[in-house]
């Protein structure tokens, strides 16, 4: 198939909300696969920016560190809005994804990452959200990490759970892990666990 030239035009962007997150209304048009241009499209765009997630793993004892916290997005579609997740945070100005991985691991789970392994970069919900996630596996010593973590100034109330790899995969299969990023992280770990245990 002949390569199709792709282009888009941002016609207008109007900020409509700025708070914990920001939202804008945009008007745009883009080229079509069948040729020509689309009609102008009106969309709302949720701005999130760059974020980082880390699945902390201790290969010496085959344990995973998962965190549990309240998530407002799950409150309206889930009976239990306390979700099992992995460490994550937003990239602030002047930070690298690696900086964020180390910072968030300390803040949310009390982890000191010994080695950081890049897994992937991806858009979780590109249909309406401007967010790109960098996902890492962080090699840690999981001893003594269970407990409550988070920053008071950010009103974080985060429970760190240290579980066996088998337990984490059982929770995944049971549907107890419902957020996309930890699902991706655990599936990657399942594929790469043997290699990590032999490092």
How does this structure look, described?
This protein is α+β, with helices and mostly antiparallel strands. It has two domains: 8-44, no CATH class; 49-197, Nucleoside Triphosphate Pyrophosphohydrolase, CATH 3.90.79. It is built from four helices and ten strands; from the N terminus they run ββββαββαββββαα. Strands 1, 2, 3, 4, 5, 6, 7, 8, 9 and 10 form a ten-stranded mixed sheet that branches. α3 (165-174) runs antiparallel to α4. It is globular. The mean pLDDT is 93.
Outline:
globular
DSSP strand content: 35-45%
Report the strand count: 10
Low-confidence stretches: none
Q: Number of DSSP helices?
A: 4
Mean pLDDT: 93
H/E series: EEEEHEEHEEEEHH
Write down the domain tally.
2
CATH superfamily of the largest domain: Nucleoside Triphosphate Pyrophosphohydrolase
Q: What CATH architecture label of the largest domain applies?
A: Alpha-Beta Complex
First-to-last CA distance: 44 Å
Please name the CATH topology of the largest domain: Nucleoside Triphosphate Pyrophosphohydrolase
* CATH class category label of the largest domain: Alpha Beta
- Estimated helix fraction: 10-25%
Secondary-structure-derived class:
alpha+beta
Largest sheet: 10 strands, mixed
Rg computed from alpha carbons, rounded to a whole number of angstroms? 20 Å
């Amino acid at each position: 198939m002949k390569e199709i030239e792709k282009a888009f035009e941002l016609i207008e962007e109007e900020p409509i909300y700025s708070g914990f997150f920001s939202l804008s209304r945009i008007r745009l048009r883009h080229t079509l696969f069948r040729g020509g241009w689309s009609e102008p499209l009106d969309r709302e765009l949720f701005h999130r920016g760059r974020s980082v997630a880390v699945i902390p793993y201790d290969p010496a004892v085959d344990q995973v560190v998962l965190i549990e916290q309240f998530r407002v997005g799950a409150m309206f579609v889930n009976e239990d809005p306390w979700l099992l997740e992995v460490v994550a945070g937003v990239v602030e100005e002047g930070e690298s994804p690696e900086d964020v991985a180390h910072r968030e691991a300390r803040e949310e789970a009390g982890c000191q990452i010994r080695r950081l392994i890049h897994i992937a970069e991806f858009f979780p919900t590109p249909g309406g959200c401007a967010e790109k996630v960098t996902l890492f596996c962080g090699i840690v010593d999981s001893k003594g990490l269970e407990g409550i973590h988070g920053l008071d100034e950010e009103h974080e109330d985060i429970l760190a759970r240290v579980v066996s790899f088998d337990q984490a995969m059982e929770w995944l299969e049971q549907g107890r892990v419902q957020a996309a990023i930890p699902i991706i992280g655990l599936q990657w770990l399942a594929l790469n666990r043997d290699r990590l245990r032999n490092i």
